[in-house]
Amino acid sequence: MHVSPILPRCVPRRIESAALSVLAVFAVFASVAALVLGAGAPRAAAATSRPCDVYAAAGTPCVAAHSLVRALYSAYGGPLYQVKRASDGGFANIGVLTTGGYADAAAQDAFCAGTTCVITEIYDQSARHNHLTVEGAGGAGAADVGAPADALPVTVGGHQVYGLEISAGMGYRDNSTSGVAVNGQAEGMYMVTSGTHVNGACCFDYGNAETNNKDTGNGHMDAINFGTECWFAPCHGQGPWVQADLENGLFQSDAGYSRNTSNTGTGPMPFVTALLKNNGQNHFALKYGNAQSGGLTTTYSGGEPTAGGYAPMHQEGAIVLGTGGDNSNGSIGSFFEGVMTSGIPTDAADDAVQADIVSAGYGGPTGSTGTLSPGSEISLRATTACCTTDYLRHQADAAVISPVTSGSSALDRNDATWIVRRGLADASCVSFESRNYPGDFLRHYNYRIYRQPMNGTSQFRADATFCPATGRSGTGTSFASYNYPSRYLRHYDLGVYAASDGGANAFDSAASWSDDVSWAVSPPWAP
């Protein structure tokens, strides 16, 4: 029996009046789309505008546009990111399926088949070429490593794509940028992240940072922070919060601490839009929204921090993703897309971008249900006579069984829904990703089954891989542990374990073992 660590989790005056209405922004899309071309983009604009088309139309063009899941310009047809293959050190660029469209994840799957890949570069879709590569050592952290390319599978717009899942010790950076705000210039930025993969360590950031990977003083950063770290008390609720990392503090207001008692954080929302804008002189604002529905909520809009060094700001113009400005790299987080602009976008432009993010279809149905084919959404029902209305679900990070019906809460039905993925350690087997915690998989630890975020290690891959076989009771399907093949996924006393047929542990009891390890693969409770 191995002992592998359990990954930590913490549960989680507008800037100006709108100069353009949302309708006005959309009215000029067609005229500007053809002019807003990212590196490698073809010279024919697609019909549907994307976030950087919106911001250009509002007079605040993108100076950085990073995404692993889709094009952020309607006319962009170039690469999104680069992966490196472990087996031979080969590299491949992963692009879009169509101009202005979604990532070609199948190309990644084919290139990485039979081995593993890490993400080595995230391309800037803007004409500025501000590409992000794996971050080097800094004042507070050793050199980072690339994130595993397959750690965060997700459905966006009906397409199977991958996001970026950051674990401690991972991060990306560009210290030699073009067009990014410096020395008090105005800028805006957003990222789509997740409220289900967070912690209270420093610092899951995206935005403007120092050019030498060190803390060079107050006001030398201007980046979105997302996590549960409360730098200035009081913070209200449990978070995670959208905050401004302006260096030497994560700010929820000019005082640092939250002046907004209603800002209790986003909670475990699977997809979150996090937004920061700063005029660099005397005003910044923070917003967030559900990236799957609805609009944006402003949590702060007011003066720069009252401590010295922040008014004016002293940004240096590097871009950081996943760490603090000095490479403080203890944080975890998820990243799907993000941009930075020249100048402060109007509120109407922000609203139009949020509408486009919602329309992208983050976390939508996979299009397949009820089978063990990769990409299919399923629920697993117990077949033991005692428990035929019980389903395998997660609760407080652990796997359990409990009754689930059509009358159950949406949370219960989501917790009992899993997405079948190719086995993380063996593609002929399967892994089970949580429907409502993107990037979290069922894995065993000391034989107990937990829901945990994939960290890319070979140990996690093996622990999270199960090999289907005909049900040991003669009905349904049994799932053998990949690295303990005599142990099967079993429910026992409402918990779920990797259990053998007889053994020293209570959950290895031979009584009803064959029934307890046989599961009915059912249609999902959550669409």
Describe the fold and architecture.
The chain is mainly beta. It has two domains: 22-360, Jelly Rolls (Sandwich); 377-522, Trefoil (Trefoil (Acidic Fibroblast Growth Factor, subunit A)), CATH 2.80.10.50. The chain is built from eight helices and 32 strands. The protein has helices at residues 22-27, 29-33, 51-57, 105-112, 347-360, 410-415, 458-463, 513-516; strands spanning 62-67, 79-85, 91-95, 117-122, 132-134, 153-156, 159-162, 164-166, 172-174, 187-193, 205-209, 222-227, 241-245, 250-251, 272-278, 284-290, 296-302, 318-321, 333-335, 337-342, 377-382, 390-395, 398-403, 418-422, 430-434, 440-445, 448-453, 466-470, 477-481, 488-492, 495-499, 519-522. The strands form nine sheets. The chain has a ten-stranded antiparallel sheet with strand order 3-2-4-5-9-18-11-12-13-14, covered by helices on one side. It has a six-stranded antiparallel sheet with strand order 1-20-10-15-16-17. It has a four-stranded antiparallel sheet with strand order 25-24-21-32, with no helix packed on it. A hairpin with a 4-residue loop joins strand 13 (241-245) and strand 14. It is elongated, with a radius of gyration of 23 Å. It starts with 21 loop residues before the first helix and ends in a 5-residue tail after the last strand. The relative contact order is 0.14. Residues 1-47 have low confidence and may be disordered. Residues 380-521 form the Alpha-L-arabinofuranosidase B arabinose-binding domain. Residues 51-362 form the Alpha-L-arabinofuranosidase B catalytic domain. This is Alpha-L-arabinofuranosidase B domain-containing protein.
